[in-house]
User: Which sequence fits this backbone?
């Protein structure tokens, strides 16, 4: 499969010459179409900095980041903004839904910004809502939804424009265990049914066990990589815990 994302020798520095911090130190990896990849690491390891550079929220100090073969590190700010709208989807821990819009309107907004025809908007919103099991939620406002429903609406908003890459930053952090499980199953369904490509930052081994591959970061460098084969999710979880213990990170119980 072609690489949707290719990071080459990414470095990120903060501060000045007298007080310089190297947050990312020569990180390189690829993500292929249809992969669900997790990034794990202890607090301060650089995992969120890496996601911010890939998402264009921040910029790398050195190296290249190619998405669909386009080097976003060489783009102008205007070109980056246009590329972000068309090619990237975002799922955050705090949902970021607009309180004055219904679920349907929150999801449709992503298409309206791209000037998608109205008839096409309706079909695409209802299709992604059905895939994520939120069809009955479309007429509700965020305050009328559970946390799990709000996050699945946010997920629908991220995927409805068919982005090349979905970036998820601790998406289960504000959810209870049942809602987290439902959301993660939805991620796997998006990958399976819609061939979505997801890159997720998480500190949680339970969430990571749903991924097909895990990249572990320590002190701004790639420390280890795990690939899930034909093993069960419980077996993959156990392997994740072994690496997490070496990183000094936290873990959760698995059911």
Assistant:
């Amino acid at each position: 499969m072609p690489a949707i994302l290719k990071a080459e020798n990414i470095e990120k520095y903060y501060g000045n010459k007298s007080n310089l911090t190297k947050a990312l130190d020569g990180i390189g990896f690829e993500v292929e179409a249809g992969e669900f990849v997790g990034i794990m690491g202890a607090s301060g390891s650089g995992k969120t900095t890496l996601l911010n550079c890939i998402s264009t929220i921040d910029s790398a100090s050195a190296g290249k980041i190619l998405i669909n073969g386009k080097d976003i590190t060489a783009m102008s700010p205007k070109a980056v903004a246009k590329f972000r709208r068309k090619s990237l989807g975002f799922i955050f821990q705090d949902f970021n839904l607009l309180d004055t819009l219904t679920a349907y309107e929150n999801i449709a907004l992503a298409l309206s910004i791209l000037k998608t025809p109205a008839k096409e908007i309706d079909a695409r919103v209802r299709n992604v809502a059905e895939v994520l099991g939120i069809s009955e939620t479309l007429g509700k406002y965020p305050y009328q939804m559970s946390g799990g429903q709000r996050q699945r609406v946010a997920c629908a908003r991220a995927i409805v424009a068919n982005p090349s890459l979905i970036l998820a930053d601790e998406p289960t952090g504000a959810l209870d265990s049942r809602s987290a499980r439902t959301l993660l199953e939805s991620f796997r369904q998006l990958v399976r049914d819609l061939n979505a490509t997801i890159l997720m930052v998480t500190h949680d081994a339970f969430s990571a066990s749903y991924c097909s591959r895990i990249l572990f970061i320590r002190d701004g460098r790639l420390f280890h990589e795990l690939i899930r084969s034909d093993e069960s999710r419980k077996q993959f979880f156990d392997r994740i815990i072994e690496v997490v213990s070496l990183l000094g990170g936290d873990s959760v119980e698995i059911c």
